[in-house]
Amino acid sequence: DFGRSSELAFVVEPSDDIAVQEQPLILYCQVEGIQPITITWRKNGVMIVDSENAFMLANGSLYVSRFQRLRGDGSSDEGEYDCMAQNHYGLVVSRKAKIQAATMSDFHIHPQNAVVEEGGVARFQCQIHGLPEPVILWHKNSMPVNTDNERYTLLPKGVLQITGLRAEDSGIFHCVATNIANVKFSREARLTVSGSHSTVYKDPMILVGPENLTLTVHQTAVLECIATGNPRPIVSWSRLDGRPIGVEGIQVLGTGNLMISDLTVQHSGIYVCAANKPGTRVRRTAQGSLVVQAPAEFVQHPQSISRPVGTTAIFTCVAQGEPPPQITWLRNGQILETSDHIKLKNNNSTLSIYGINQADEAIYQCLAENSAGSTQASARLTVLWADGLPSPPQGVRAETVSATTIQVSWEKPLQNTKEIIGYVLHIRKAADPVEMEYQEAVSKSTFQQLVTDLEPSTSYSFYIKAYTSRGASKASEVTVVSTLGEVPAMPSLFIKVINSTTVQATWEPSIKLGQHEGFKLYYRKVHLSQYTGPVLLASNVTAYNITHLDASVVYEVKLLAYNQHGDGNSTVRFVSLRETVERTVLNPPCDCMKDEQNNKTSTTGIIIGIHIGVTCIIFCILFLMFGYRGRLLMCKNVQEQLSTPQIPRSQRSATGLVLNGATRRDRDDRDLNGKQLDMNELERLFPASPSQEQQEKGIASAQSLSASHDETQISTLPLDEFSIIEEQPDPLPKSPHGSSPAALAPDHGPANEG
Length: 754
Fold this sequence. Notes:
Immunoglobulin-like, six-stranded mixed β-sheet, 7 helices, disulfide bond, single chain
């Protein structure tokens, strides 16, 4: 691997230039590297032969004695020039230098006469094309305009602005354009300043806004904006994307022109000029785009490398610019052609050379070019070759064993076999690119290798290299052989019952099926030997409906894939439609219209029931409220009547029991008739000294009544005035008629009802 000083590289490359008609032109080219170095020149890709008009100097530069844009024979000295340098290790080509003739056209825009009132703004413009860009100066009354006057602004594109006009500004103006090709004068224009300064209000107005510009980095951009109005508007600048314009390299010319020096790509954007009326939000705007281009330049240069024979060499070349540059690779000055072992990736930024040999040893160049310029970088590939390496392995053969296996055999090299430490078998699908190649290592005593896990019906290429500790031999001859074909694998099969007479067979496409032409579908009743089918289906079909089946039997469904080699193994499924029929009988399909009507009827019934229930609750509440009120009144009357002297205990107990019943009956009677029973009525119904039989009857009735009363009714009587003493009654005698005691007290009916 040689040092940097040994690399063939350019110290000075030719640059773009503008030549003057009939004047000499020199294009410089200086190269370093190991001598001897030969330098030659090309114009538009054609070799330049030394002549009286153009020849090469001793230092390698090209000298053109009399540059001519157009010669008598129709040829021209304009064009793209590059120099080529070559030594023992290779050849490099310089960047292309664009040479143009200096020219100047006639003015295509001349200044125009103008009449402007005092205090206003005057603008004159003239335009002319030329190479290089002409410098335009202004004259007033045949004298150069005084640029020290702050009211006079000269813009690079041939514009003269005069603000705050005065009477002395009147005069005759014209412009002068100058470059290395010529000097030209425009027509004259008269400026007349009329009247005095007007005080009439005028809305802001932009006379001239910014133009769309396309420039290169490091140039200067001038965005013009001239506005009028009364009062004089304030001019401001902004970017449409909201980003700040910044302050470095920014300058305002005159009353509102924006100048940006030393342009960068970041200055690209749309610029907005705004004319605002002072103290208000009244404004007018105009906008123009600025596009800044950047010549191609390298972010990463390719590096010279040394690699042994048979290995892979990779060069990387990354360039940037605006617009993004295109990358081209050269090999010893010629456009690099890609092949099976030479590949370009990542938009040509990566060059890969597989299985290099001595023929690949050369100088490789990366050319990056866009509309703003071009650049180049080079690197050398050195192929290492050690003396005494083995010769290529001999007699490489490949034999097909099966659809996925090939056996490769070879013989040892003819020369330098003592230092061999092993062999490497290189394997690749014949249709794949070289970078898809893979290797298998083999011991030095083995001369065959069984390659497995291959794809059926596929061609493969094989070659062998012998390796030593100092490097590898050259590759053997390449042999290509194909694997055998095989039938497809078993497909996966799923059965879905659609209805009582139809099932759907579905399967999934899979790469495991291999190369297949389609599917065959069979089905039968399990008790029969004869299949229905085959139903032939295309390879892209994944489902099939089997119809008109008998729901009372079980069916067998079989699916297989086939190709030109035959039928593959089948997948079998069994299906019964009986369960579907039974489910249909047990769960008949719903009558949606009938269900809807039933739902409507049920809903109506629920609503009516709710209304009835609410009404009942309201009546019950009213009933309880009024009943409670009557009960309180009854208790008050009873208290007054019970204030008489005490009666005998036996009578008191019976009377108290009867009173409870009477109170309930009295309340019921009051609810029905609206009348109260007095004490005489109570005594008439329940005498104080009844007979033994009547007393027993009364006690029994009172007990039954007392059991039916709640605590609230009992507690409404004061305890000091009324008490209940429970006594164990004697067994009640049976009536002569065999009836129960309750049946013998017909007068107690109302109380029982209560």
